[in-house]
Amino acid sequence: MTDDTTHQVNESADKVVLTTKIKRGSGTRDQDSIKVKVKGDDPMDAAVKLDRTVNAILENGTAETLRGTQPSGESE
């Protein structure tokens, strides 16, 4: 009888994780949100990454693109 058990460990060198939610719109049915999660070696590194990511989302129009995405109701 052979016991071939493999254990995989997922370790991250990142020590700081920041998560935020970007919300657009104010009405109940007129809201979109994007969840952003970044990791860094220290608080300043993580904060810089979060700032860059949020700015990129806003500058590239990602939120507007998602807003324009509507279910078509058709299956392909």
Key phrases:
single chain, 76 residues, alpha+beta, two-stranded antiparallel sheet, 2 helices, 24% strand
Short description:
The chain is of the alpha+beta class and 76 residues long. The protein is 32% helix and 24% strand.
- Note the main sheet: 2 strands, antiparallel
- Count of helical segments? 2
Strand content: 15-25%
Q: What is the averaged pLDDT score?
A: 77
Low-pLDDT regions: none
Note the overall shape. Answer: extended
H-E string:
EEHH
| Whole-angstrom Rg | 19 Å
- How many beta strands in the DSSP annotation? 2
Account of the protein in words:
The chain is built from two helices and two strands; from the N terminus they run ββαα. The chain is an alpha+beta fold and 76 residues long. It has a domain at 16-59. A two-stranded antiparallel ribbon has the order 1-2. The longest helix is centred in the C-terminal third of the chain and has 17 residues, at 43-59. It starts with 15 loop residues before the first strand and ends in an 8-residue tail after the last helix. The model has no long low-confidence stretch (mean pLDDT 77).
